[in-house]
Design a protein that fits this description.
single chain, about 375 residues, mainly alpha, 3-stranded antiparallel beta sheet, 15 helices, about 50% helix, elongated
Length: about 375
């Protein structure tokens, strides 16, 4: 018995070519009339096919041609992960000469679609955007702050707490997560929220996100121990994981970053003072050495960074006064001088010998303590 030949799946024969049966021109001179849905021979006018599918773009934009700024495009905006819901709604518009019925319908629809939670989020996002612009940070910091605030808002974990302090704490955490650390004082100057309130909210948020991290790990363990992203997405909102900087790219959870170090602040302060890249690197090395030796233990990272920059500017020959550094760092010049006095006594342990050998620095430029 001969086995039946397996039937091959249907595929279009691309070697076939449509030609006009009257003209029989090769290559054929055919035109697709999308408005009528016909395939027409341009030589003799014979209709060779009807109901032709329009394969062009489904929409067009006439913004440049229309003086009334009326865009007939039927494609809406992309979904915003920072907002709740499907965001698929119909708006009833009314113009200048609209009838009273259209106006009443639009007003009634706005009342029905009025979502208080979305309104609260939009108002908070507007605040966060303004604060981040005031701090001259990147869009990544602003987006991370908004994601953090949305997580807190969706969980309703801090009801009764001041929204301004939560926003300020979210911005502070986002700056750390995005490796552009800002101090409590800098956040306070922009948000007008007290340092104590920001500090309390920051501690509460750290505990909250750490607890969520443990819940995520527990969810992965219960699902079989496979640390895969789709398992986390199934257990938690996608926005929690999609936000880079808030959660690690490998899906391991919230990244609890250590506190700001003087080295993190040196780059920005040196940039504001107009110092060279060489002076910036020297100040960072001095900050690392001062932390290693512990000579400035107990002092804030701001005053330590300011003293390191003050010392590095004289070593590199780009002198900046203590007052100039104090204006940028936001500390008093007396604080800088006191820290510098301690550093001057152990300058041999802070200044590398290879710098002196290579001629990068000269210790004789240092002012007496």
């Amino acid at each position: 018995m001969i086995a039946a030949k397996p039937q091959e799946p249907w595929t279009e024969n691309l070697t076939l070519q449509m030609i006009c049966k009257d003209c029989k021109e090769d290559p054929p001179n055919l035109v697709e009339d999308f408005s009528a849905g016909d395939m027409i021979c341009a030589s003799c006018g014979l209709v060779l096919g009807d109901r032709i599918v329009d394969t062009r773009s489904e929409w067009r934009t006439f913004t440049n041609d229309d003086q009334n700024n009326d865009d007939p495009s039927r494609v809406g905006d992309g979904a915003n992960p920072l907002l709740n819901g499907a965001q698929l709604s119909t708006n009833i518009a009314f113009g200048g000469g609209a009838a009273a019925k259209s106006r009443d319908l639009s007003r009634a629809q706005n009342k029905v679609n009025n979502d208080k939670s979305t309104k609260t989020l939009l108002a908070a996002y507007k605040q966060i955007g303004a604060f981040c612009d005031g701090m001259v940070t990147s869009k990544n910091v602003s987006d991370t702050s908004k994601h953090l605030f949305k997580i807190v808002q969706d969980e309703s974990a801090f009801r009764g707490k001041s929204q301004d302090s939560l926003i300020a704490a979210c911005i502070f955490i986002a700056c750390r997560q995005c490796k552009v650390a800002r101090t409590f004082k800098e956040v306070q100057d922009v948000t007008k929220v007290g340092k104590a309130d920001i500090g309390r909210a920051f501690k509460h948020l750290e505990k909250f996100f750490a607890a969520r991290n443990e819940s995520m790990k527990a969810a992965v363990t219960e699902s079989g121990g496979k640390h895969e992203l789709h398992l986390l997405v199934a257990a938690f909102p996608l926005t929690d994981i999609a936000c880079k900087g808030v959660y690690n790219p490998d899906g391991s959870g919230y990244d609890n970053v250590e506190s700001t170090t003087p080295k993190d602040l040196c780059t920005r302060y040196c940039n504001l003072l107009g110092l060279s890249q060489k002076c910036t690197r020297i100040s960072q090395d001095i900050a690392i050495n001062s932390e290693r030796t512990g000579i400035l233990a107990g002092r804030s990272p701001i005053s330590t960074a300011a003293a390191c920059i003050y010392m590095a500017s004289y070593l590199a020959g780009e002198m900046r006064s203590a007052k100039d550094v104090a204006l940028v760092a936001g500390v008093s010049d007396g604080t800088i001088r006191n820290a510098y006095k301690i550093m001057y006594g152990v300058k041999d342990s802070l200044v590398k010998e290879e710098w002196i050998a290579q001629g990068k620095v000269e210790t004789k430029r240092l002012p007496p303590a």
